[in-house]
Amino acid sequence: MGDKGITIEEWNRLMEEAKREDEARMRQQTQNLQSLVDEAKGKHASDEREAEEKINQYMKNHSETGIYEYLVRGATLICSNGTHKRKLNLPKCHGVYIGEHPVMHELECVSEAVCGRDKCNIAFFGICIPETGSPPPTEVKTYSMTEKNSKAGIAAVVTGHKCKPCIIGQWRDTYDATKIVDNGDKAGRSAGLNTLTTGSFLVCRYGGLILPINSGQQFAVKMEDFYNAADYYKVVRKPAGDGRTPG
Questions:
Q1: Could you give the residue ranges of the DSSP H alpha helices within the chain?
Q2: Distance from C-alpha of 190 to C-alpha of 182, rounded to nearest angstrom
Q3: Distances in Å between the alpha carbon of 102 and those of 70, 89, 242?
Q4: Predicted confidence band of residue 108 (pLDDT cuts 50, 70, 90)
Q5: Would the pTM of this model clear 0.90, i.e. be above it?
């Protein structure tokens, strides 16, 4: 007798099981990476002194001023698995600024793989080299690194699987005391969306932690960073106060 193969019902059942297993794996991975960040921020410290030392070191490593700052367009990001640094992108600002810099919110984590470089928030980080597990099933590429764009700060040539960020969920550890009402593509939350700080981070399904190493506020702004030309001139010519930090 010939092999009758698998029925549609059985195929659908297997696909549902695989989907549930994948979702469970992603939840566990996210929890593990959240725990790593919490540990680095001193949330699991045995005493107040250790907690203070850890959070101070974390803020120093992720902000140019050593304290949490609002994350803006142009902030420098790294991925724990990636070889290159990249800039946080904001294709269209919301008319909300810190000084002259457009502020961003928790849902602005669309990767280059989803909508292309010009419309994305998160670009690829060169070559993906996971500490554990497998890299994404992408083509093998060779890229040059300079001291400026290399995560390690060295000039070199790297070969491996091209990074393809696949973001799980949205930005984590966001700031809920300052909200942005987004009436554009991400409308739907009338109470507003949490803003990002240098303490926020993203999780990639391939095991990467995507983190800022500065706020982006130290970089010069350009007209294309604003909603329109009128907004640019209004904001740039207006004296900026000291509102760079949350709280």
A1: 8-40, 48-62, 112-115, 229-236
A2: 9
A3: 10, 10, 15
A4: very high
A5: no
